[in-house]
């Protein structure tokens, strides 16, 4: 860490050397736009490729969370559409995921 002292002989010159532009480097902006465009077009494959290229962790498609609208079969949609307003007792089951393992247990 460099310490600047206001009473140093070249304080003004040292201070000027720290002045930076608030505008991003045009080359960086161009690269970021290209990366985002590729990820929008190619999806996870591009995300994994650029993560590796720029020194991030080695990823596979299985490491990425699934996003988007969940698929629900017709019976579940019908049950939701015709749900009753009366209280219902639900049966809890074990929930297992790759990240958190299994938790919960059967109960009535």
Describe the structure.
- With 108 residues, this protein is mainly alpha-helical.
- It has one domain.
- It is built from 4 helices and 2 strands; from the N terminus they run H-H-H-H-E-E.
- A two-stranded antiparallel ribbon has the order 1-2.
- Strand 1 and strand 2 form a beta hairpin.
- Helix 2 runs antiparallel to helix 3.
- The longest helix is centred in the first third of the chain and has 17 residues.
Instruction: Give the overall shape, derived from the CA principal axes.
Output: elongated
Q: Which residues form runs of ≥5 with pLDDT under 50?
A: none
SS-based structural class?
mainly alpha
Strand order of the largest sheet: 1-2
Helix content: 25-40%
Rg calculated over all Cα atoms: 27 Å
Oligomer type: single chain
Instruction: Determine the N-to-C terminus distance.
Output: 62 Å
Tell me the strand percentage band. 5-15%
How confident overall, as mean pLDDT? 78
Total count of helical runs of at least 4 residues:
4
Number of domains: 1
Element-level helix/strand string? HHHHEE
Largest sheet: 2 strands, antiparallel
Beta-strand segment tally? 2
